[in-house]
């Protein structure tokens, strides 16, 4: 089992010593409202951001009995701390992976605390907290009058269509429109209801949706 942080540029950091335990905090969001004399009521608002936290240390010397990797790839404690600090100030999410488990999620490094112990010179102990990230999705809402205001520009790409010409075949259309005649089956899959069971039964004037 390995604990890995990986950014979008391909930089990967494997923690040299696995933590003894990992805490994953999950909470459900609620909005509390007071309704006249009936008291307070909670309304579920979806899940809150999940937190993942664990503690371990960066050993100065490589010990194959508990260290991951090899002696040559073993990071110096200062180098390992600098890598975590880079992830901490990153403005884009990074991927957190625990191999042999289902944990493989985009996160931000929320906090990184280090501790130096006098009796173990050179080793650096740390506490790390990660917060899971998900892309924000904004739903359309009506204005104060109950009527939607001017709609925002639709960023969703519209489906492209093709009008069948005499002498056309699905492979010819795929070559012309998609650059690869072997993609005819993708066109057929999208338009099977209109074409029928025979992919060669397309007719001039028929409009086909392209992938």
From TrEMBL:
Tell me the SUPFAM superfamilies matching this sequence: LysM domain
Q: Name one Pfam family in it.
A: LysM
Q: Which InterPro entries match?
A: Bact_Kbp, LysM, LysM_dom_sf
LysM domain location, by residue?
160-210
Q: What is this protein called?
A: Nucleoid-associated protein YgaU
Provide the species name. Paenibacillus lactis
């Amino acid at each position: 089992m390995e604990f890995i942080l990986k950014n979008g540029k391909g930089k990967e950091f494997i923690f040299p010593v696995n933590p003894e335990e990992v805490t994953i905090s999950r909470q459900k969001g609620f909005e509390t409202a007071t309704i006249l004399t009936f008291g307070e009521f909670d309304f579920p608002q979806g899940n809150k951001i999940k937190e993942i936290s664990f503690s371990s240390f960066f050993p100065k010397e490589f010990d194959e009995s508990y260290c991951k990797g090899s002696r040559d790839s073993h990071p110096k404690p200062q180098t390992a701390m600098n890598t975590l600090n880079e992830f901490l100030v990153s403005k884009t999410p990074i991927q957190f992976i625990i191999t042999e488990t289902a944990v493989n999620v985009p996160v931000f490094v929320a906090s990184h605390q280090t501790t130096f112990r006098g009796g173990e010179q050179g080793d650096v102990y740390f506490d790390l907290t990660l917060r899971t990230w998900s892309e924000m999705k904004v739903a359309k809402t009506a204005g104060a009058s109950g009527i939607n205001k001017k709609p925002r520009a639709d960023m969703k790409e519209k489906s492209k269509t093709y009008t069948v010409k005499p002498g056309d075949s699905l492979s010819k259309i795929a070559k012309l429109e998609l650059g690869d005649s072997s993609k005819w089956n993708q066109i057929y899959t999208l338009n099977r209801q209109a074409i029928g069971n025979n992919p060669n039964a397309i007719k001039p004037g028929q409009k086909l949706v392209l992938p």
